[in-house]
Amino acid sequence: MLVADYVLERLRDWGVEHVFAYPGDGVNGLVAAFGRADNRPKFVQSRHEEMSALAAVGYAKFSGRVGVCLATSGPGAIHLLNGLYDAKLDHVPVVAIVGQTARTAMGGSYQQEIDLHALFKDVASEYLVDVTVPEQLPNALDRAIRTAEAQRAPTALIIPADVQELPYEPPQHAFKHVPSSRPNRSWTTSVPPRSELDRAAAVLNEGERVAILVGQGARGAAAEVREIAELTGAGVAKALLGKDVLPDDLPYGTGSIGLLGTRPSYELMRDCDTLLIVGSSFPYSQFLPEYGKARGVQVDVDGRFIGMRYPTEVNLVGDAASTLRALLPSLRRKEDRSWQDTVVGNVAQSWEALRAQAHVDADPVNPMRIAWELSERLPADAIVTADSGSAANWYARLVRFGPGNRGSLSGTLATMGAGVPYAIGAKFAHPDRPVVALVGDGAMQMNGLAELLTMARYQHEWADRRCVVCVLHNNDLNQVTWELRAMGGAPKFTESQSLPEVGYAEFARSIGLVGIDVTDPGALGAAWDSALAADRPAVLDVRCDPDIPPIPPHASFDQVKSVAEAMIKGDPDAWGVMAKGVRTKAREFLHRRPSDQDSP
Question: CA-CA distance, 384 to 436, in Å (whole number)?
């Protein structure tokens, strides 16, 4: 058995079923080993190493297991970086296995030789190691996997090309040899001391207007969050990565928070007197209560992220579900439900306003309606991914999740180009579930078109082949266009913002996928029905209007003033922006209570 053979055997021992990869001579030994191992674990070939890393992130997010990616030395390793940083910033366990030039050539300025430790020292800071002799295995690989899972972070294993082809020798019971133990995942759950739980309970019991903010760290504690909300009469807002923690049919669930958030979430934070944060490191403190207006309690499994977003009074470091279960017996039910009733009313009005806004006339299709129509027919077990850009706005505000839905995007790094590889990772994690990706045309031109080839190649391995890529086709880098207007008062700069014309559905049809063109808003619902009923992956190419404003319903005066300045300075789309912006905002005002008409 060679070292490369042993690496694959150990991955199998860990239950790794897929390696998202691209070949190269720095990993030829490992590639040959896949052939000898009857492709177990499965070598999933992307079109680019960055896509391999992002697919591994998507796989890890939706499977709950470690994602593994593989690339050659030099350029292959460099290409992994963006996906690995996505894993680092969203706290996702991913292991990168990377080749390197042979040991005999190291330090000789050899072809494709770069300093991989300098390259990976930040992104893989939790664990980064060279395997220079066979006896380092299995410890080096085991630690990479254990560390990735324990720290929810990317790790990296560098194996020079010649080491991959050496005969495997296990570590000896000898000085300076390090053994390992059998793969296992027996994690403990931590709970804070009773005294701290009692302090937290006192804060929540004394509050009259309780708000809860959940992030992805609350995913395993959904039942406990709901029980606390029922007891305290709270409203619950969701950080973007926690969008799928609770279903959107909860009457007191206010939806997303922040720049991509909803008005009820803004009002919840504005008016509450007590804030409970569970499993979230939401960074935009301006969308949390004003300092001094609310008492705060935070629950997080990682003490490094406690108390850094809001001046919380009680900080509970522990597993979310276990900590909330221990907290529940000390909470008293609030008999006055007027606060929660207000939240429920705000939520109902918001959904009506969003429905009306989604049906504002546009040229040709209102992008809000794309997400609204999807929600009307989203399969109960569907997984939804979204790309960065204006697609993320509509995903955050308008896509309504049920209890069986999952969803994610590049939350903290917010990289473009994650939507399609995330969808591919999701399909390998759950080949029996439908997947939908909401992607802007900028991201499709960046890398999504190429990854449709990956989708076409592997579709036959999925029990349910449905994987719908919906392209928001407006020939504009729309999110940045609106940021220029709303944050800098700058008109659209056509040279940087306009995109070349591409037929995305036509491309899909050319590679054997279903391709559906939509230019009529009245045909959008039927198009979604066809794509979701297709017998293979489909591309929904929707010509949508770039002038529908993605600005939040709680936009500040300064943002509105900046947009107006951009129009005055000669924005090429000024008339359409102003007309459609006024019509969209009017729908919101029509569905607000009189008492809220003077709110921001």
Answer: 5
For residue 223, the tally of other CB atoms under 10 A from its CB is 12
Tokens linked to 600: 């921001």
SS3 content of the chain, % helix, strand, coil (to 5): 45, 15, 40
- For residue 446 the two structure tokens come to 């960046």
Residue 217 CA to residue 189 CA, distance in Å, equals: 13
Q: Which of these, 400, 367, 403, 357, lies nearest to 482 by C-alpha position?
A: 367
Strand partners, 277: 213, 298
Q: How does DSSP classify residue 334?
A: P
- What distance in Å separates the CA atoms of residue 394 and residue 526, rounded to the nearest whole number? 20
Nearest partner of 200 among 318, 340, 348, judged by Cα: 318
The predicted-structure confidence for 262-293, as pLDDT tens digits, reads as follows 999 999 999 999 999 999 999 999 999 999 99
Strands 210-214, 274-278: pairing is parallel
Which residue in this structure is represented by tokens 């839905």? 405
424 Cβ contact partners less than 8 Å away, ≥ 6 residues apart = 44, 46, 51, 55, 58, 451, 454, 455, 458, 467
Which of the residue ranges 52-56, 187-191, 216-220, 246-250 would you say has the lowest mean pLDDT? 187-191
Pairing of strands 514-518, 154-160: unpaired
Return the higher-pLDDT residue of 430 and 482: 430
pLDDT at residue 599 in the model: 42
Per-residue pLDDT, averaged over 206-230, amounts to: 98
User: What is the pLDDT at residue 598?
Assistant: 43
